[in-house]
C-alpha cells in the first residue's frame, strides 16, 4: 500500500502521525511524506528559519522517509487556488492508496484548511484517515493504533525540532498517547494514537489497510479478578 502523510507544518507529522506511520512502515507499506507550509511563522525568524525547519523535518522523519516540502505560506494555507493545485499535483504523482492528514476539527487554521483541501482533491478516489487534534479537543476517534514500540522513536523525532522548543510537544505527546491508550483499557506504560475515519463509498471499510489497535482486555474477566 502507498500511504501519504500530509502535515501542515514541519513538525506536525512527528507530533500527530508518527506512530501510525511507523506501524504502517513496519507492515511493509510505502510511506510518502508531504509538508505543506514553510513553517516561517513558527519561532523567531532570524533569516534562516525556513531552512532550519526543513533540516529539522528531514532529521525527524529520516526513519520514515524523505519529506517533500511544498513551501506554501505559513498562516494562510488555502487562501489561493495555487495551494490546491500544488497539492493536486502531488496526489496525481504519488497516487496514494490512503492519505493521513489533519482533522477539520483541529485548532489551527492551517490544519483546518489543509484538511478541507485534501478532502476536496481526494474526493471519492482516495480514502482519508484524520489524525488527532491538539489535546483531543472536539475529536471523536473511531480507530486507535498501538504505538508503544515506536514511542521512543516518536519522541526522538519531535526532539529534532529544536526551533520549536520541543519539550512542550514531547510532554503533550506522552500525555495524549498515554490517554488514548488508556481509553482502550490498555495497561499503564502503553501508548496509542487515535484517528477518525468516515466510511464513504467505495471505501466503506478500510480496516484491511490499517495496523493493529491495542489488544482488547476483557472488562468482565478483569473485573471478576478484582482488577477494576
Ligand atoms: Zn501545525
Task: Give a quick set of tags describing it.
seven-stranded mixed sheet; globular; binds zinc ion; alpha/beta; 228 residues; 7 helices; 38% helix; Rossmann fold
**End-to-end gap:** 40 Å
CATH class type: Alpha Beta
What's the CATH topology label? Rossmann fold
How many extended strands?
A: 7
Q: Into which percent range does the helicity of residues fall? A: 25-40%
- pLDDT < 50 runs, ≥5 residues: none
CATH architecture: 3-Layer(aba) Sandwich
Describe the structure.
The longest helix is centred in the C-terminal third of the chain and has 17 residues, at 167-183. The chain has a single domain (2-224), classed as LmbE-like (Rossmann fold), CATH 3.40.50.10320. The chain starts with a strand and ends with a helix. It has a 7-stranded mixed sheet, with helices on both faces. It has 7 helices and 7 strands. With 228 residues, the chain is α/β, with parallel strands linked by helices. Bound molecules: zinc ion (ZN). The site of zinc ion has 5 residues, from loops.
Any chance you could write out the topology, listing elements then pairs?
Blueprint lengths: L1 E6 L4 H15 L3 E8 L11 H12 L7 E5 L8 H14 L3 E4 L7 H14 L5 E4 L11 E4 L4 H9 L7 H17 L8 E5 L22 H6 L4
Parallel strand pairs: 1-2, 1-4, 2-3, 4-5
Antiparallel strand pairs: 5-7, 6-7
Bound molecules: zinc ion.
Quick take:
The protein has 7 helices and 7 strands; from the N terminus they run βαβαβαβαββααβα. The chain is α/β, with parallel strands linked by helices and 228 residues long.
